[in-house]
Write a structure and sequence with these properties.
The structure holds 2 protein chains of 2 kinds. By secondary structure, chain A is mostly helical. Helix content of chain A is about 75%, strand content about 0%. Chain A has a single domain, classed as Orthogonal Bundle (ABC transporter involved in vitamin B12 uptake, BtuC), CATH 1.10.3470. In chain A, a hairpin with a 3-residue loop joins β2 and β3. In chain B, the strands form 6 sheets. In chain B, strands 6-9-10-3-11-12 form a 6-stranded mixed beta sheet, with helices on both faces. Chain B has a 6-stranded mixed beta sheet with strand order 18-21-22-15-23-24, sandwiched between helices. By secondary structure, chain B is an alpha/beta fold. In chain B, a hairpin with a 2-residue loop joins β7 and β8. The chains are: A mainly alpha, B alpha/beta. The interface of A and B includes residues 180 and 184 of A.
Chain lengths: ~350, ~500
């Protein structure tokens, strides 16, 4: 039995290289407190990336996660302001993500609207609602219990959100690699028609991944609201969505479905977090930061792709093959029905 | 007119050690219409693929106008005047007839397209070939299949085609459309255009062709001018003179056993099945040409395809297959024909592919039992002697091994009706026999089995009863000693030329 390197190895090596370079450039980088700050700053994108990974694995995409981030924070704040206990408020916030996800999944499944369009629409809706409710003013949440969610520490050193992030990642990994549902997700993304003909409940599978994505975006929004001690209606408006998608893709999750893993998406998110953190330490002009992140992502993904192509694993080639197969099978179907 | 246009000598093609065509020679002169006849898998498509330049022969020589050439790509074949009209037509639906007509060869003036000129030329050429009634500014999608085909042939002519290859051009056509097409071929052959016409239908060949070449199992059986042969001779050559009767000695006494599935008055867009019945412990072979509805029939029983009306009973109980999930729950299983399109999940490992239809069996407390998966799949890997790394994505296995994994997928769940669509596609001969024996054994265990196959030998080897299908109907049912190669071939073909 020969030892097989996991597919995530390549991208982990990239992470290590970036870390080594940063710690050479600044003695501040490789300190315990900075590492935890870095991870803390990764939590929001990381949770979105894990949810996004589920959706991408089925060959879909969820553009609404950034908007849900704001929606969930504001809903939490509004419910809290209505004198409900903070945990009820937080759960309601997460629930707003669940509902958005459910809406996405049902629309995509039953109307056959492409995921890009359907979730683009719900992105618009979900990002408007907080603005309408708050008239663009942040709503404060002052509560000790609630502030622990985003600001608390365990053992005085580990930020609580980091623990949540790691637990979610482990759970997601177990679900995808060890359960029937996980295999259904991969199978559905790999070949829809084969999955259907193998008796897989493809409706349930497809809707579920959007619900998972929405739920994690909701959770992420609650954590962010706690860190900011308020519901910010413009919280997810920036780069959250694109950073989440690129985190997953950098981590080896294919945009065409069927390929990728949670450890990959996790490492991808940490890479993006590390870059942002490192540049802050090095005092890189904030106008330059997105440029650097963009270029590093491009290089990392290119290297990884070339590596797997040479290995014969050819992840993108495979995908194109699969795409053409799907195309021709629908063509056959059309021919048969016409 | 006597000079030969195309001469092919000793063409041979093999895929990974399997020779699918050997020693194929043919000479085509201007104005000749050649028919290429043979059963499924005889090598007709291989010939077309090589002459159209989409595949290179393993060995052999090609001459055009006396000089040796290599048809290395579809483009080079076209430059030499060889055009191919495939079953899947090439016209782009969203472009107009004119745009399709000039695709890749647009008339340009200073880099801009001269639309007026193109429209003019297109309508001139079309009306010259009796297609003047078509509006050249209309999109191709508004045309019927038959008109599209004619437009494709005519646009080939406009590009100086000398030889046109037609791959089963009449399968998707109505009767009157077939006559139009044949008439066009006759007219064009008079002005020196040659045709190579692949067909299943002997009547068509006799009505339009000047020469006839017969293939069987990759071998050229005969090639002669049409007036030196006759229909019976052709039929005999297609079927092969030696009829192998590998019929097993034990024909089960199926008369008294229970009915597993009963289908009556099943109607769908392509099917019209009056009465069909399969007993427990019985293997029914379903034979028919491509497009006869055999695959659709299985898919309908499996719930993967909608039907309009009809009645099905499974073990006497009403059975309404509305989805594959429903079918699986009732123990109705289907091994699909198109391995790549609707069989494998390419990126998943072979083991996971094998258990895909039966994941619940390996689920305990929400988790998959890896050890159980391994032991269970190992059992089938040994039984079917599947070779390759089972942990790797299945797409890295050879086609034959992929097929065995898929076969195992449907042997794993508990079932009562097992439907196999081309179960031995791409599998080597030794294993083929093993699979045939396995099918017999499964029947003995009580499975009712439906086997669709294009291979007559396979149908003969496994079936107790054979249903011959034709244009969505079951045209005849053969039992016991009636199941011989000759009968299958004539039944499946003759059914078709009733219509011509």
């Amino acid at each position: 039995m020969k030892f097989k390197f996991p597919n995530e190895l390549g991208i982990t090596v990239v992470l290590i290289i970036i870390s080594v370079i940063l710690s050479l450039l600044s003695p501040m980088f490789f300190t315990t407190s900075n590492i935890f700050t870095l991870l803390l700053n990764t939590v929001n994108i990381g949770l979105l990336a894990i949810g996004e990974a589920f959706v991408l694995l089925t060959g879909g995409i969820d553009l609404s996660v950034g908007a849900v981030l704001a929606l969930s924070g504001v809903i939490t704040a509004v419910i809290f302001q209505a004198h409900f206990p903070w945990y009820i408020a937080a759960i309601t916030g997460i629930l707003s993500g669940v509902i958005t996800g459910l809406f996405n999944g049902v629309v995509i499944r039953y109307t056959k609207v492409p995921p890009f369009i359907a979730t683009f629409a719900s992105m618009g809706v979900a990002s408007s609602i907080p603005l309408i409710i708050t008239q663009a003013n942040p709503i404060p949440i002052i509560n000790q219990g609630f502030s622990f969610v985003g600001q608390g520490f365990v053992f005085k050193i580990i930020p609580f959100p980091v623990i949540v992030f790691v637990i979610v990642a482990i759970l997601a990994h177990i679900i995808l690699s060890r359960t029937v549902f996980g295999i259904h997700v991969y199978a559905f993304g790999g070949n829809r028609e084969s999955s259907r003909l193998s008796g897989i409940n493809t409706t349930l599978t497809e809707i579920s991944v959007y619900v998972i994505s929405g739920t994690l975006a909701g959770l992420s929004g609650v954590i962010l609201a706690s860190r900011l001690a308020s519901g910010y209606p413009t919280a997810g408006a920036g780069n959250s969505l694109f950073e989440a998608i690129s985190a997953a893709v950098v981590g080896g999750v294919s945009l065409f479905g069927g390929i990728g893993s949670i450890p990959g998406a996790f490492v991808g998110a940490v890479i993006i977090g590390t870059l942002a953190d490192g540049m802050n330490i090095l005092n890189v002009d904030s106008y330059w930061q997105p440029l650097v992140i963009g270029l590093v992502i491009l290089v990392a993904v290119t290297v990884d792709t070339l590596r797997s192509v040479r290995k014969g694993g050819n992840k993108f080639g495979v995908l194109f093959k699969r795409k053409s197969v799907v195309f021709s099978s629908t063509e056959v179907q059309e021919k048969k029905t016409s | 007119m006597d000079k030969e246009f195309l001469k092919v000598e000793n063409l041979e093609k093999s895929y990974g050690g399997v020779t699918v065509l050997r020693d194929f020679s043919l000479t085509i002169r201007p104005g000749e219409v050649h028919a290429l006849i043979g059963h499924n898998g005889a090598g007709k498509s291989t010939v077309i693929r090589m002459l159209s330049g989409s595949q290179n022969p393993s060995s052999g020589k090609l001459y055009i106008n006396g000089s040796e050439v290599a048809l290395s790509s579809p483009r080079s074949a076209r430059n030499m005047g060889i055009y191919t009209v495939f079953q899947e037509l090439r016209l782009i639906d969203e472009l107009t007839i004119t745009e399709n007509f000039f695709l890749g060869k647009e008339i340009r003036v200073n880099g801009f397209i001269n639309k007026r000129e193109m429209v003019k030329v297109t309508s001139e050429v079309l009306s010259k070939h009796n297609l003047g009634h078509l509006n050249v500014l209309e999109k191709a999608k508004s045309l019927s299949h038959a008109s599209k085909q004619l437009v494709e042939i005519v646009s080939a002519l406009n590009n100086d085609a000398k030889l046109i290859l037609l791959d089963e051009p009449t399968t998707a056509l109505q009767m009157s459309e077939i006559q139009d097409l044949l008439q066009t071929i006759r007219i064009l052959s008079r002005i020196g255009i040659s045709f190579l016409f692949i067909t299943h239908k002997i009547d068509e060949a006799f009505s339009v062709c000047t020469h006839l070449t017969i293939l069987r199992n990759g071998q050229m059986i005969s090639s002669s001018s049409i007036d030196k042969t006759n229909r019976d001779e052709v039929l005999a050559s297609v079927a092969g003179k030696k009829i192998v009767t590998v019929k097993k000695a034990t024909i089960l006494d199926t008369m008294q056993s229970d009915v597993a599935l009963e289908v009556s008055h099943l109607k769908s867009d392509v099917l019209d099945i009056q009465q069909f019945k399969v007993n427990k412990g019985e293997v029914i072979g379903i034979y028919g040409l491509v497009g006869s509805g055999r695959t659709e029939f299985l898919e309908t029983i499996y719930g993967a395809r909608k039907y309009i009306s009809g009645n099905m009973r499974l073990n006497g109980y009403l059975y309404r297959p509305k989805s594959p999930i429903y079918a699986l729950r009732h123990g109705v299983l289907l091994l699909t024909e198109e391995r790549k399109q609707n069989g494998i999940i390419p990126q998943l490992s072979s083991r996971i592919n094998m258990i895909l239809a039966n994941l619940r069996q390996f689920n305990q407390g929400g988790f998959l039992q890896k050890r159980l998966i391994k032991s269970k799949t190992d059992e089938f890997i040994n039984k079917l002697s599947i070779k390759g790394d089972m942990e790797q994505p299945i797409e890295r296995l050879s086609g034959g091994n992929q097929q065995k994994v898929l076969l195992a997928r449907w042997l794993l769940p508990e079932g009562q009706l097992l439907m196999l669509d081309e179960p031995t596609k791409g599998v080597d001969i030794g294993v083929k026999t093993e699979i045939h024996m396995m099918i017999r054994d499964l029947a003995k265990e009580g499975y009712a089995v439906l086997v669709v196959s294009s291979e007559v030998e396979e149908i003969i080897a496994v079936s107790d009863v054979v249903a011959v299908m034709n244009t969505g109907k079951i045209s005849s049912v053969l039992r016991g000693s009636d199941i011989i190669e000759e009968k299958l071939l004539t039944e499946s073909m003759e059914g078709i030329h009733h219509e011509v």
